[in-house]
Amino acid sequence: MAQATIGNSEFDRDTAVTRREPGVYEARVSAGWTVHGAANGGYLLALIGRALGDTLPHPHPFTITAHYLGATRPGPALVRTTAVRGGRGLSTGQASLCQTAPDGTETERVRVLASYGDLDALPADIRTTAKPPAIPPYEHCAGRNEGRDRGRDEGRDPVPDAAAALSERLDVRLDPATAGWAVGAPSGRGEMRAWFGLADGRDPDPLALLLAVDALPPTAFEMGLTGWVPTVELTAHVRRRPAPGPLRVCVVTRNLAGGYLEEDAEVWDTQDRLVAQSRQLARPVVKRAG
Amino acid sequence: MAQATIGNSEFDRDTAVTRREPGVYEARVSAGWTVHGAANGGYLLALIGRALGDTLPHPHPFTITAHYLGATRPGPALVRTTAVRGGRGLSTGQASLCQTAPDGTETERVRVLASYGDLDALPADIRTTAKPPAIPPYEHCAGRNEGRDRGRDEGRDPVPDAAAALSERLDVRLDPATAGWAVGAPSGRGEMRAWFGLADGRDPDPLALLLAVDALPPTAFEMGLTGWVPTVELTAHVRRRPAPGPLRVCVVTRNLAGGYLEEDAEVWDTQDRLVAQSRQLARPVVKRAG
């Protein structure tokens, strides 16, 4: 397989939108980015984010929030966008992703609110106390399939997440310290760390960061929970254009309470820059493991 | 002054909204909750949040995001709400706060997207690794006015934030370890911790948490920056109904880059429960202190 590039890759093709009229975009939700048959939230955010980037005068999502109203299935979709405010450095817009049932009923699946800017126009100053995640070198981290196969060899069912079509599109290499869940030995800590890339070798760009913040297995798995962890709301801040090469993603959950948990993600590039931060509120559909 | 109560307090009166027709609410932005003449973002979020709570079938903002489009001034305002989706446990809505100029032009100041639920319907389970902030007892923390007066005694100008009408409405007692900025000696760390209450003694409720997450002096002050730190976007998760009594609020900034910074806030109640989390993206209008 030839090395894919930004603009010519699975991710670009599967997040493409076609403007039908001002503020109305046709899209096709790909079956390639699903988990348990529903499109991944980060993938949908990237697709909607692409439509908003076309509508608004600025190219990059500085802060983007999605509320997931229901599962989005592979197939045709419409993205309706509205420009809310245009300023010199930032513009704000809103979008809805809708799907039409066989009976003609249109249902909204995702509602998005975002402010866009131009990352390339920002000054280079940095003052940071954030540290890149302590994660072993890429070659010491296991791909998902390795974890799955190990579990299978030991007579366990494949880990739930491994059924995901999504995992075929990604090159996610989990830190062994947060991969215990895959072999039935979760650490009990709500942490997930991994190297993250696209399977076809496409380098990251701002839209791919929206995928990266929601692409790791749920932290709940390392907390000993199994099942489905649907996102209620996800907000991502894109802080810098990522350098080429694999990203490091670190996701932490501190508080599972009242049936909800937060997942805080950081994304770091090969130049040790914090390129994105996100937080999501999710509601695990929980069964205790074991 | 008699002890104020939930439903009968300055905060309740100044965030009140009157339904004019379905989805349209009249409000009056009070001069009492301003900083440098512009209404505080958390106060506006509480006011808009009250209108959304009236529109939606659920009472409490589980996750609420505001994009601040421009400064909101004291005076009349309209809040327009739309119900996006209603579900069994959660409903999603959107709102805009608008003000009308003397020439009749209506300008949108804040756009909000939120999902509401019922905190009182959640199970009591908690699994948390989050720890309450290490903050000295209430009586050892200084009120804002004390810091300001100390600065004045030493011949410095009043600290910028002390000019805020907002500070009269709040009982904010800063941890001395994060109050150096008020006497010209910022720590250099992007942290701010305080006890937080309403000046009239009203106990906290879910709407007051929306105020609490945006009511401390900017972390940028402790990083040695002065000036105005307007919020681009703020997302708050309300995780639990707060117990009566003062809250502890801890705000941390890790990354100031490209002219933007994040402020992550946690709010804890008197029962040592994490009752709210928030993150905002802000863009300091910076001049170096000293």
TrEMBL record, chains A, B:
Residues 128-159 are annotated as: Disordered. Residues 159-282 form the Acyl-CoA thioesterase-like C-terminal domain. Gene3D superfamilies: Acyl-CoA thioesterase, double hotdog domain. Residues 141-159 have a biased composition (Basic and acidic residues). InterPro entries: ACOT8-like_C, Acyl-CoA_hotdog, HotDog_dom_sf, Sec_Metab_Biosynth-Assoc, TesB_ACOT8-like_N. SUPFAM superfamilies: Thioesterase/thiol ester dehydrase-isomerase. Residues 31-116 form the Acyl-CoA thioesterase-like N-terminal HotDog domain. PANTHER family: CHROMOSOME 23, WHOLE GENOME SHOTGUN SEQUENCE (PTHR38110), THIOESTERASE DOMAIN-CONTAINING PROTEIN (PTHR38110:SF1). This is Thioesterase family protein. It comes from Streptomyces gamaensis. The lineage of its organism: Bacteria, Bacillati, Actinomycetota, Actinomycetes, Kitasatosporales.
